[in-house]
Every structure is written in C-alpha cells, then in structure tokens.
Design goal:
Length: 228
C-alpha cells in the first residue's frame, strides 16, 4: 500500500456503515431528512392500523431536534486495526454466547483495542443487534431508544473519536450483530456528558438492540474505568 492510500474495506456493508456514520457527523441535515421521511411513514402506518407508534415518533422527533443543534465534526477514518479489534470481539461473543465487551482471560475492551491499535487513547464500542442494513444500523445508534442519556449517539457524534472499525456476525442467537470499535488519540477527551472527570484512556461502550425502538430493559450498557 502506498503512503496515504486509503485502506480498503473488507465488505461493502462495512463501508456503507462508515459512510452513514460520517454522514451523521459531517452533514446532520441529511440524516434529519431521512428521519423526517421515517416519521411520515410511521404516521401513515398508524393511520392504517390500530397500533400505537407514538413512542417511536417521539424518539425520531427528539433525535431530529438534537441533530439540528449538532455541530459538524471530523469524519471517522476507517482502520484495519480497529476492524480487527471489532472482529476479535465478535468472535468472543460467538464463543461465549454472551454480549460482552470483555475478551478471553477477562481482557478489557480498552486493553483489546489498545493491543490492536498499538497506542493509548480514547476508546468506545457499540453493538447493534438485528440489522444488516447500514442506514438502519446508524439510525438506531442515533435514536438510541430506551436510554435517556443516549450513549450510543454520543459515541457516534463525539469529536474525540477519529477512527472506527466495523465487523459483523450473521447469526447471534438468531439475529445479526454489528460490532463498532472507536478510537481517538491520547489527546482526546470524552465529554462531560459521560464523565465527571474526563480522562485520557477512558473507554465507553454500549449496546442497541432491535432497531429504532428498543424497550429499556433489553438495552445493556456498561462503563469500564481504566486500569493501572
């Protein structure tokens, strides 16, 4: 590979996920237009059925309002090393049968990403269950239904993170799983929305299950404080 030559994506799906992540970061108005159309479709569906979709409509509206105030941030760079870190954890999920950010011998998420990237920094990781469409994966992270403080959204839009890797499992307990690993250099700081005392080398991770609307009891999130 020549110097400064872009790294190739392992799959078109992974490329599309990164493209939509960067669309949200660099052109939030484009995402607003997609969400507006989704809201209109929900309105039409509710008129044609007896189901109450008001919760999903509220989630979409809240996301649109947030994106209207979002300042554009730097696009994420795709890194093969982060793809490898995400793929490694995808394999661990299959082996353990559990949604976990810990690896073999209790290797932490930050230790794993640091091992693959080769340097300290800011780390985060998200899981999305039930989708193999890039647009829907990113929208589910932005809407982040079921979690009041929206950790998945904050990770996606956080300027602290400069790079990302994506990996997929076709069948985890009957549903596809997308693993997204994020990295920012050691000078990056996570926002006060996450931490009382933002620190370098501070990882965050969370899950989003089931798509645009997710009951809170099915969402798992965890925080891992850096070790010595």
């Amino acid at each position: 590979m020549k110097p400064n030559e872009p790294e190739l994506f392992p799959s078109r799906l992974e490329e599309d996920v990164v493209r939509y992540l960067n669309l949200a970061r660099s052109d939030p108005q484009a995402i607003i237009e997609i969400l507006t159309k989704a809201g209109a479709l929900l309105d039409a569906a509710q008129e044609d059925s007896e189901s109450d979709k008001s919760g999903e409509e509220d989630a979409i509206f809240e996301t649109i309002q947030h994106l209207r105030g979002h300042k554009t941030v730097v696009k994420l760079e795709y890194l093969k090393t982060l793809h490898a870190a995400a793929k490694s954890q995808a394999g661990q999920v299959i082996r353990s049968g559990e949604l976990t950010h810990f690896g073999e011998n209790y290797e932490s998420m930050s230790e794993r990403i640091r091992r693959f990237v080769g340097s300290k920094g800011s780390y985060a990781e998200c899981f999305v269950i039930g989708h193999m469409i890039a647009e829907t994966i990113v929208l589910s992270l932005l809407i982040d239904a079921g979690l009041p403080d929206k950790p998945n959204r904050e990770i996606v839009l956080n300027n602290s993170f400069k790079s990302v890797g994506v990996s997929f499992i076709d069948d985890f307990k009957g549903a596809p799983l997308c693993v997204l690993s994020f990295y920012g250099d050691s000078k990056s700081k996570l926002t006060a929305m996450f931490l009382d005392n933002p620190l370098d080398d501070q990882p965050w991770f969370s899950h989003q299950e089931g798509g645009l609307h997710c009951p809170q009891e099915r969402v798992v999130r965890a925080q891992e404080w850096p070790g010595g």
